[in-house]
Give the backbone structure.
Amino acid sequence: MDAEKLNQALYDKMAAEQERFKHTLSGMTPEEVLDHAYEYAMREDILMEMEKLDLSAPEAAALLESPSPLADVYGDFREREGHMDLVRECIETLAYSLLETQREKNRAIPLYLENAGYARDHGELDMFWASQKANIACRDAIEAAIRERGTSDSVKRVLAQFGSERVSYVLAVTLLERREDERLSRETVAWAMSVPIGRGRARCSDYAISSHTYHLDDFTTLARMEMEPAREQSAKKPSIKGKLAAKPVPGERSAKPKDKGVR
């Protein structure tokens, strides 16, 4: 028998095997059927692939020797870890993509430093409420990070998600409400007083952090350590105006110091 006929015979045998499996499922309870739903779907995929696959005559003949080639292929498939690795990779990739989209969305919302009255008078209530919502989400993320013991990695995640400006703001308005608490370090209070908070602080209770003062102080210290290098680098970077001032103008001679001893 040639390869084409052997492949067709193999497909017919596997299709008949699937029909028997389907008939067996029809006699089960709904709960039992659900337990075998994955197996049924994968066996259907194997059959679909068999319609397109051209095995060599010896390969097809070898599979035909099996009393249940479809069950054998499915059993081999289940034993391979590559399938679950692919499933895991798909889950992680999608989660990361959605997280990045959420981070970009959060970072794109401007921090609004005016109060609701100002926003109403200037037609900026949408900006005000969008910022309020982002502040609350930032508060929740900080509290979740603190529950994780406020590790450096958790601090970095919050900063990546909301940006240093909003994280600084939410921390500062909370710390200023507790500035008389002796459990806060002087450095933390001084830093909070240096953060611009504008008039939006009037509704800060909506997004004030409720975590314990000790843990809040520790988180703030870690956040400052993450943010300060970026600020220092930005401060050291020369401005465009400074670069232009330092750059010599073509054709212009540099001034030479006068020799005071010669007239």
About this structure: The CA atoms of residues 46 and 73 lie 8 Å apart. The chain is about 70% helix and 0% strand. The radius of gyration is 34 Å. The chain has a mean pLDDT of 84.
